[in-house]
Amino acid sequence: MPARDAEPFPRAVLEVLGAAADRPVFEHGTRVVTGSELLDLIARIGNGLRAKGIGPGDGVALLLGVNPEAFATILAAHAVGARVVGVRPGLTEAQVEHLLSLDIKLVVRDDDVPQAHGPELRCDGRPGDFARLIHTSGSTGVPKACAQTYAAMTNAWTARPEAWPPAIRELASRLDRYLVFGSLSSQVMFEYAVLTLTAGGTVVVADDPADAITRHRATARVITVPGLAKLVARHSPADLPTLRALLVSGSPLTTQRHREALEVLGPVLFHGYGQTETGMISMATPYDPPGTVGKPPVDLEIRDGELYVRTPGQASAYWGNPEETAEVFVDGWVRTRDLGHLDADGHLHLTGRARDVVIVNANLHHAGPIEQVIAEHPDVAEAYVVAVPDDDTGEAVHAFVVPRADRVPELEELRALVTGRLGAACAPVRVTAIAEPPVAPSGKPDKRLLTA
Description:
- Residues 21-108, 121-319 form the AMP-dependent synthetase/ligase domain.
- There is one protein chain.
- By secondary structure, the protein is an alpha/beta fold.
- It is built from 14 helices and 24 strands.
- The strands form 6 sheets. Strands 5-3-4-6-7-16 form a 6-stranded mixed β-sheet. Strands 14, 15, 17, 18 and 19 form a 5-stranded antiparallel β-sheet that branches.
- Helix 1 crosses helix 2 (35-51), helix 2 crosses helix 3 (68-79) and helix 12 (367-374) crosses helix 13.
């Protein structure tokens, strides 16, 4: 058996819990779980999984809520070396059936978490085995299962303070009480929970995230861009005295929305950029320029405007999809299919999706730059662009805007603004005012619903 310091993920997390001892690490309602208690729970669930014949390379699907047992089960499944598939709530029956067909040996539900007494927990993951399959949000099509190896999870920085980039070190200092909700199978929710424990904080379950910052005296939570807009409209710093970190995730912030949130809520905004395939790529702290996602601490190349990255914990394939794997995972790099550039100070600016396009007269125009120009109009808080059929040009731009106040900008105003910056082909032929964008289960704006 390898020495402890040579064991793979989640050994570093287990060491954090062991060092926590009697310190509270998980809070769910009136229930408080210490580091030692959570470590004992992980060991019992790990032995329960082994008793059911689960070991390295076996597929385990987790249909679990948000509670200490769910968190412990994820870590226990990794400890025995299984290939873990988290099934988040809100999926259709067909989608759940698809996930459960991915070579799964055991399905674990909240009412049937296996536990057994046995020897001290060891971490048996094999470096080259896939440790987990994480499904993308599906914002560019059908969700894909990103396969991450045990070697990649071990190399990731989350539970290793010595490897934290500067932005994460700043964030970690604010994670005294971090809210979790929705699903711990969410990559973002789980990774920040591990970071919180490593930073000496407490993971706090919010059964209902509405006003949970105040109710749970939270210092940090994840929030989507639409959720941030609602929070900015309702609150001021005096309303949220405990808040120290809002982790904006899911989609880019416009410069104006970013600046407005900092002005209203104070220096609490951390704007992260990453993908399911890569984990975190970059993060803006409250002290970075609005409209950027900070200075990337990972290897990054810009090829014809498109971002290619290498991160310590990146996935290496799409499960069962060799064609897409070959297109995205290229010679050790991950092709993000995002567009962006670095400014003179090294800050990263995102400008759109490589495949989020409108094809006008057979010429391809990216939606991101058009949205950014429209969002500069003083009456526009947010802008979303989709392609619509056009008898003359094949496709044309349809703009959906969230008005900043009661006034909806006239179509001709937006056409003139876009034409002056990007040319007439990018100018919208229609504009529709919406109160807020429809969102996918991931919390990201769902343009497919706008198109429909």
